[in-house]
Write a structure and sequence with these properties.
With 204 residues, the chain is α+β, with helices and mostly antiparallel strands. Helix 3 (161-171) packs across helix 4 (175-184). It has one domain (8-187). It is built from 4 helices and 9 strands; from the N terminus they run βαββββββαββαα. The radius of gyration is 18 Å and the shape is globular. Strands 1, 2, 3, 4, 5, 6 and 7 form a 7-stranded mixed β-sheet that branches. Strands 8-9 form a two-stranded antiparallel ribbon. Helices cover 18% and strands 29% of the residues. Bound molecules: zinc ion. Residues 63, 66, 72, 78, 80-81 line the site of zinc ion.
């Protein structure tokens, strides 16, 4: 394999921009119709080829629970100030052999990407990047605590709509994810890729 394209770091806004023009898996005929792209996800120089099977964001255009210019009160959420971008990739790590040539160094596998973002000054982005050959691990990572004061022994977990959207898109082109979707359908909500998806004014 060879390439001349610089890798996109999945942790950056360049990835979100890239995804704005990327086709949804639910809208293509097969996985081969999803463009193969060169990515990186850490600071060690690791690079990989991947197709993005699913993407979703909890970002909303409006502030909730507080006025713009102020911070959400402790315990209050606002998806204009803090949100998560989730992506499910099908990827193969490669090694740079120089002269634009790259050699595979591991099997094709899933990469689950969860980027906890914040527009509030002084707050850091929280990245979760999971590599796994097991589709069930991807499903497990979709679940998040339903309450802020989550305790692992008593807390409830559920799949938020943007994670469900990414998983449901991935199921359109990935057989193992499709099997899991069929098996666990009752706990996987209908997806919402982002806040702009459902517009009651559309079509009026
Ligand atoms: Zn806000």
């Amino acid at each position: 394999m060879s390439t001349t394209t610089a890798p996109i770091d999945v942790r950056t806004e360049a990835f979100a921009d890239f995804m704005a023009d990327y086709p949804y898996a639910s809208e293509v005929d097969s996985i081969a119709d999803l463009p193969l792209q060169f990515f990186t996800a850490d600071d060690t120089g690791e690079v990989f080829y991947a197709r993005v099977l699913g993407f979703g964001s909890s970002y909303r255009k409006t502030h909730l629970n507080h006025a713009p210019g102020t911070k959400p009160a402790p315990g209050k959420s606002c998806s204009r100030c803090r949100w998560t971008d989730t992506a499910i990739l099908w990827a193969q790590p490669v090694e740079d052999e120089g002269d634009g040539r790259f050699k595979p160094i591991a099997r094709w596998q899933y990469v689950f990407v969860s980027l906890g973002k914040s527009a509030i000054e002084g707050e850091w982005q929280r990245d979760t990047i999971i590599w796994t050959e097991d589709a069930e691990d991807v499903l497990r990572k979709l679940f998040v605590p339903t309450k802020k004061d989550f305790r692992r022994d008593t807390g409830d977990m559920a799949i938020p709509p943007h994670n469900a959207a990414a998983f449901r898109d991935a199921a359109c082109v990935d057989e193992r994810i499709a099997d899991l979707l069929a098996r666990y359908e009752p706990v996987i909500p209908q997806g919402s890729r982002n806040g702009a998806d459902v517009d009651p004014l559309a079509g009026l």
